[in-house]
Amino acid sequence: MYKLVLIRHGQSTWNKENRFTGWTDVDITQQGVKEAVKAGKILKDSGFNFGYAYTSLLKRAIKTLHYVLNEMDLLWIPVEKSWTLNEKHYGVIQGMNKVEMVEKYGAEQVLMWRRGFAVCPPSIPIEDQRHPVHDAKYQNIIDDAARPGTESLLDTVNRIVPYWETEIKEKLKIHKEVLISAHGNSLRAIIKYLKNISDEEIVELNIPTGIAYIFTFDEQLNFVSDEFLADKKTLKKLLDEVKNQTKRQSQ
Length: 251
Fold this sequence. Notes:
The protein is an alpha/beta fold. The protein contains 8 helices and 6 strands, in the order βααβαβαααβαββα. It has a 6-stranded mixed sheet.
């Protein structure tokens, strides 16, 4: 059997503040560090021994991977960083509070910006200093389409699937256990492809921070099963928290 482990980065500063983050390079919180360390311990105790790992170019995913691998005594394994695994770009709504956005634009519109499969939030103008063309991390990317001012989940799928087929899948064949530290929507794109989830159903898929998600494949790399590495009570609580991010909590 072959094992692919997906982990959404630990809580970030903007997760804590309930803001749309996208490609904004925010750090993880102390809670995020604890989530990553705990995930590493659980993976180690479960017998995982990764031969290769991937992450995005965003520090919240990079640091999460570091803490996980450190806890597993696997800091020495090869790690590949790629913009392809970045979060979906949320355009001009990056940095905005999700509840406040619902109150201003309505729940249906925000849901489409947040989860709509082929819907892009309004784009950041290229002259805006927040646009990726002005970020040193992306200066070696020649194709301007790879430095977007906004993205839909469809765009995220389209950049990740070729990377899965040509890079990650090939490493999985060699190492048999591969770890990816990335983001809610980049992982959602991988999961959609691997499980053949419909465009309509993928809107309902929630991924909590800091919880390992295990995919098992047979010898021909056909999908066999998937499961979160968490007890049912904890998992339900965390999934509900992600689901309800656009709802104002009662005081």
